[in-house]
Task: inverse folding
């Protein structure tokens, strides 16, 4: 099961994909032509997607990952449980690679460190 070539890109894609919800689900029919078509369409629209492998799928998650990774241009970023994170670079406007990605990452304002917090989480009790 081959993963993305560069560690830095994989790290960035995993961070972006963390809050995402699965867009495509693989069900009891397994990886059909329709599922592959949906994955390709979702990757063309979003560039980075999550795919959920259902418990009733006849194939295991690694077999599904290999089948979807075999599609041209599709890269497997991560497998966590029954969820796959897939990436396909957009040919004209890549979001996660190139100048656009470095401009959005480097242009973010740096947050100033906050004041130290007190050790107690409860508010101070008033005594009578």
Result:
């Amino acid at each position: 099961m081959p993963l993305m070539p560069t560690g830095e890109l994989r790290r960035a894609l995993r961070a972006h994909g963390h809050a995402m919800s699965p867009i495509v689900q693989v069900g009891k029919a397994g990886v059909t032509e329709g599922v592959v078509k949906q994955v390709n369409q979702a990757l063309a629209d979003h560039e980075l997607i999550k795919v959920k492998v259902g418990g009733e799928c006849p194939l295991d998650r690694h077999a599904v990952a290999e089948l979807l990774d075999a599609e041209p241009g599709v890269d497997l970023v991560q497998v966590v449980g029954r969820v796959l994170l897939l990436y396909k670079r957009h040919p004209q406007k890549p979001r996660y690679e190139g100048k656009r990605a470095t401009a959005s990452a480097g242009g973010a304002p740096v947050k100033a460190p906050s004041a130290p917090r007190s050790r107690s989480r409860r508010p101070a009790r008033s005594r009578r």
Remarks:
- The chain is about 35% helix and 15% strand.
- Confidence is low (pLDDT under 50) at residues 107-113.
- The two ends are 67 Å apart (CA to CA).
- The beta strands are 24-26, 48-53, 75-80, 83-87.
